[in-house]
């Protein structure tokens, strides 16, 4: 990072740092054991792969649908209330996971985990836009949050294995504790900072889910962007479980070592290259960055399709290429939503972006079917073609219309009660 970036980071309000640090610790403790949840379910209840997959997928789809509704509620009732509710539910969910002994209790706790995450994510992203008015500083905050989330996700499993905690149910108590501390930090942050008190007051009682849906339907650009990004997540997700299924079916040599190495390459690429890539592309607009990321993602899909099953280094190279695309695309998507969202509907727009996870949720099922009926290369050629469709959707947005929003100053006045909406 250059000196200007460090200066911007230094000037972030305390609440922004609570979001950033909370995202790191929350995600890190979450990934200490969450990837090993399938092992716990298998060992405790002898569930099959399909049953475990159904439980995990159902919770992910439910979270995606709930996220939009929560985002709209945060516009109506304020970010503070929704963030506190999300952290409280996460605390209860992970505390229950730490002590659950029956399958219904596990399913209930996992449902609460999905609900808590859906409630926490949209208002957290929207609050960054509420508190940071400078566009470049806001973009840096969103990029830095994604960076810290990835660092937490990368370090969590490593720390868990090193400490002997992985696949031990009691470790969920650490995650519960992290969310309890985060909830207390939010209470302090909103109460003791001027920006936090102003953000808490900024709510628009005229916003409802029905009115928000009507507005979103009229924003053709945003709707096409949502569809394009759902497809992007769907494409990227095939580097996860679908690739493992492909390599397993193809009997790739040294499979466990290969998968572990690919996970490590992905984590290192994101952590080391995200900000250098941002620095290189700072003169390119958001859509331009996404198009570049899509091109790299398409190249990665072609590499996966063409790579010989026994070429170990080739799989790592393809993973590196797709990870580069991830480092460009995913944080840029958050910046993109922030740019598209009007101030008074920022929570609703970030809530609608929760639909992205639908692409991630459907990918394992689709990938498994294609690999079973056809082949792994066929799946990745399909994804290569799908990258072209996503590019076409982005080109289409240049010819679509958007609603005429009120000026930001007018929205702030309405929120604060200085004027009444007409």
Automatic annotation (TrEMBL):
What Pfam family does this protein match (any one)?
A: MFS_1
Q: What domain of life does the UniProt record list for this protein's source?
A: Bacteria
Record's keyword terms, sorted: Cell membrane, Membrane, Transmembrane, Transmembrane helix, Transport
Q: Does the keyword Cytoplasm apply?
A: no
KW Transcription (keyword) present = no
Identify the main location.
membrane
Query: Which parts of the chain span the membrane according to its record?
Result: 12-42, 48-70, 82-100, 144-165, 177-200, 221-239, 259-278, 290-306, 312-337, 349-371, 377-394
Stretches assigned to the Major facilitator superfamily (MFS) profile domain: 15-406
- Kindly give the membrane topology term recorded for this protein: Multi-pass membrane protein
The protein's name is MDR family MFS transporter
């Amino acid at each position: 990072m250059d000196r200007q970036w460090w200066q911007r980071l230094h000037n972030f309000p305390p609440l922004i740092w609570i979001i950033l640090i909370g995202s790191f610790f929350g995600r890190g403790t979450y990934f200490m054991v969450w990837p090993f949840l399938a092992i716990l379910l298998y060992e405790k209840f002898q569930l099959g792969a399909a049953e475990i997959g159904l439980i995990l997928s159902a919770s992910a789809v439910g979270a995606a649908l709930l996220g939009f509704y929560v985002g709209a509620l945060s516009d109506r009732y304020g970010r503070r209330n929704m963030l506190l509710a999300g952290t409280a539910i996460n605390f209860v969910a992970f505390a229950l996971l730490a002590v659950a002994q029956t399958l219904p209790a596990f399913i209930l706790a996992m449902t609460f985990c999905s609900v808590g995450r859906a409630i926490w994510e949209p208002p957290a992203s929207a609050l960054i836009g509420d508190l940071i008015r400078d566009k470049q500083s806001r973009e840096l905050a969103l990029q830095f949050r994604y960076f810290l989330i990835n660092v937490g996700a990368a370090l969590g499993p490593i720390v868990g294995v090193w400490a002997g905690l992985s696949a031990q149910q009691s470790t969920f108590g650490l995650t519960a504790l992290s969310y309890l501390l985060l909830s207390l930090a939010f209470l302090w942050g909103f109460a003791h900072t001027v920006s936090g008190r102003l953000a808490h007051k900024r709510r628009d009682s005229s916003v409802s889910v029905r009115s928000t849906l009507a507005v979103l339907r009229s924003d053709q650009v945003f709707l096409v962007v949502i569809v394009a990004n759902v497809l992007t997540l769907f494409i990227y997700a095939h580097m996860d479980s679908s690739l493992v299924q492909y390599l397993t079916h193809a009997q790739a040599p040294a499979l466990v070592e290969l998968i572990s190495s690919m996970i490590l390459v992905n984590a290192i690429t994101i952590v080391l290259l995200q900000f250098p890539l941002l620095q290189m592309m700072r003169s390119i607009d958001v859509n331009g960055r996404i198009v570049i990321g899509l091109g790299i993602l398409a190249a990665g899909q072609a590499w996966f399709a063409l790579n010989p099953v026994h070429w170990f280094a080739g799989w790592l190279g393809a993973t590196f290429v797709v990870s580069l695309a991830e480092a460009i695309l995913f944080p840029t998507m958050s910046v993109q939503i922030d740019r598209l969202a009007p101030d008074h509907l920022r929570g609703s727009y970030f809530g609608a972006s929760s639909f992205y996870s639908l692409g991630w949720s459907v990918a394992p099922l689709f990938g498994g079917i294609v690999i079973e009926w056809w082949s792994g290369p066929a799946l990745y050629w399909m994804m290569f073609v799908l990258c072209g469709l996503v590019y076409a959707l982005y080109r289409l947005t240049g010819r679509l219309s958007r609603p005429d929003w009120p000026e930001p100053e007018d929205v702030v006045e309405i929120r604060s009660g200085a004027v009444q909406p007409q």
